[in-house]
């Protein structure tokens, strides 16, 4: 009798959590495992039911065949993430620093205006930029250029100028979040540090470098990691501005996510696209492990 009670007591947590674990398994684990399985096959639109096991061929094609396009997309994604993060941190810090100036009036109004891009759905913002700003014939930017006697520019027509246009749109969408985090971090700094620095005749650059930056790093760290993930997995800005089927602009820019999407849903090469997805999954897992170690190290040093 006592053994039965002990068994029920031990099994009770597993029995109560079984429905939730089953649901997680169906929603999360099964798609990952099935994608992993498909990545070893030649499944495509011609072999939908008759696909064969081809080993690591899809992975070899992605990693070792330069013309496959994956390495180029990966390099572009790293450049894209780095450029956007650096610009976001610098611009957000400058805006937040100015917003915390004691002499500035109407701070609430400026902060409300800054939140407008965040309040508008991303899909709508991107289409507004595409049709209202970047359009070659009636876009606002070219109207300004024409008014100054300059020729119109195809803002999304080539890879170089399109990259700059994409970065501008991404900054428009992402800056409000980073500015608000920076603003909160700056307000949390004890003013006595700056008063002590004034007594030592420290200039503004010394205050920023030795007081502001070290003190806001723990606060903005998680926001930076979230933004890094979001930027690395960027899809909608690149796809909607330059790669939409039927309205491609001529720019040949691919993040690894748009590259996987194109192989899955445009060329219908599901096996190869699954291999790409698994590689992206592994890259993100490695990134999560490295960032967790860095955060843990930062906490230990506090």
Question: What is the helix content?
Answer: over 70%
Secondary-structure-based class equals mainly alpha
The total count of helices amounts to 13
Global geometry = flat
Poorly predicted parts: none
| Average of pLDDT | 86
Largest sheet: none
Strand content: under 5%
Q: Distance between the terminal alpha carbons, to the nearest Å? A: 53 Å
Order of helices and strands: HHHHHHHHHHHHH
Kindly provide the radius of gyration, computed on alpha-carbon positions and rounded to a whole number of angstroms: 25 Å
Number of strands: 0
Descriptive notes:
This protein is mostly helical. Helix content is 75%, strand content 0%. It has 13 helices and no strands. Helix 1 (2-38) crosses helix 13 and helix 3 (70-99) crosses helix 8. The mean pLDDT is 86.
How would you concisely characterize the structure shown here?
The protein is mainly α.
What keywords describe this structure?
flat; single chain; 302 residues; mainly alpha
Helices, strands, pairings?
Layout (H helix, E strand, L loop, with lengths): L1 H37 L18 H8 L5 H30 L7 H8 L1 H4 L2 H12 L6 H8 L11 H29 L3 H9 L4 H29 L3 H8 L12 H11 L3 H32 L1
Helix pairs in contact: 1-13, 2-13, 3-8, 3-10, 6-11, 8-10, 8-11, 10-13, 12-13
């Amino acid at each position: 009798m006592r053994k039965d009670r002990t068994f029920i007591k031990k099994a009770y947590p597993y029995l109560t959590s079984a429905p939730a674990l089953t649901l997680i398994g169906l929603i999360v684990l099964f798609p990952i495992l099935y994608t992993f399985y498909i990545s070893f096959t030649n499944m495509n639109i011609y072999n939908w039911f008759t696909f064969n096991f081809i080993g690591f061929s899809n992975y070899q094609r992605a990693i070792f065949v330069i013309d496959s396009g994956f390495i180029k997309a990966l390099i572009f994604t790293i450049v894209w993430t780095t450029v956007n993060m650096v610009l976001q941190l610098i611009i957000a810090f400058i805006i937040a620093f100015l917003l915390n100036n004691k002499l500035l009036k109407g701070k609430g109004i400026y902060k409300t205006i800054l939140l407008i891009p965040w309040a508008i759905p991303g899909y709508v913002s991107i289409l507004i930029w595409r049709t209202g700003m970047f359009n070659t014939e009636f876009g606002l930017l070219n109207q300004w250029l024409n008014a100054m006697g300059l020729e119109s520019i195809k803002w999304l027509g080539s890879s170089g100028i399109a990259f700059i246009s994409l970065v501008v749109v991404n900054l428009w969408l992402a800056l409000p979040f980073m500015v608000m985090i920076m603003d909160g971090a700056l307000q949390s700094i004890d003013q006595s540090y700056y008063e002590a620095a004034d007594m030592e005749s420290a200039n503004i650059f010394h205050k920023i470098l030795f007081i502001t930056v070290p003190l806001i790093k723990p606060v903005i760290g998680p926001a930076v990691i979230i933004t890094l993930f979001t930027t690395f997995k960027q899809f909608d800005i690149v796809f909607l501005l330059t790669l939409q089927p039927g309205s491609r602009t001529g720019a040949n820019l691919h993040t690894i996510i748009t590259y996987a999407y194109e192989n899955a849903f445009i060329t219908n090469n599901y096996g190869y696209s699954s291999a790409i997805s698994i590689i992206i999954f592994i890259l993100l897992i490695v990134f999560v492990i490295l960032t967790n170690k860095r955060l843990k190290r930062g906490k230990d040093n506090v």
